[in-house]
Amino acid sequence: MKALREIGWNKAFQFAALTIAMVFYRALLFSPLRVRMLRLLGAKIGRNVVLHDVEFFNVYRRGFSGLHIGDDCFLGNQCLMDLADEIHLGAQVTLAERVVVLTHLNVGYADHPLQNHFPARSAPVRFEPGCFVGACVTVLCGVTVGARAFVGAGSVVTKDVPPSHVVAGVPAKVLRTLVDGAPND
Prior knowledge:
The chain is an alpha/beta fold. It is built from 3 helices and 20 strands. The protein has an 8-stranded mixed beta sheet with strand order 2-5-8-13-16-18-19-20.
């Protein structure tokens, strides 16, 4: 009942309805069918998008209207997308397998003892055109991954990634800059 008091009946109903919709979405085996269903639910998705087994959570907060995917994007298996705030993918963005995109931070209920130190917040996450995010990467709320940037597998991205840069690590740090698409060591 505590959760219901914090979110209210309207959000609880949205949560239930969208959870049922996600059961149908997950049953769709082919990417074009998943894309169509997400468009029907309000997502803005471009042409030639491949959605493998992508999961969404916190959809009841903003809805699929907060999901924007440009043309020619690829989202790999077991990507986890937090729709508490907006997620924008420009054209030709690749998210490899098991990428986690977080758009919010909340340590617990309003009376949680850590709320004073880590107040709840949300912020959009943006992936600019042509960037690549490797397998098992976590991207935190408010981050922008720049155009043609490369994020190495297993990284935790805590701050913006400049365009045409290679980053990796925990937390992700700049390793090098790309010049005209070629590595510049």
